[in-house]
Amino acid sequence: MHIKLNEQNELLAxxxxxxxxxxxxxxxxxxxxxxxxxxxxxYYVFKNNTVLVNANYKEPEExxxxxxxxxxxIIIVKEELLIQTAKLINRIEKLENEGGV
Length: 101
What we know:
With 101 residues, this protein is of the alpha+beta class. Helices cover 32% and strands 19% of the residues.
């Protein structure tokens, strides 16, 4: 298996097939059980030619946004744009019918 590490030898990515640019090849026997199922970037560390669970791993904190735009808000804005577009089309058609365009 091919792995890519950061400066602290924490695993950033892996490849079962092929290779990763800047990565290294590690024997499949040197990985913990359920490595693939449990893989997350930085969750594992490479020490003494073996992949181990990183004792220093911390779950990333979720980013909280103060101004989250909801899907409902987006739909409302799009509806307003559609209404404005329909009004403009009606005005253009009216002017064309009157011979003003």
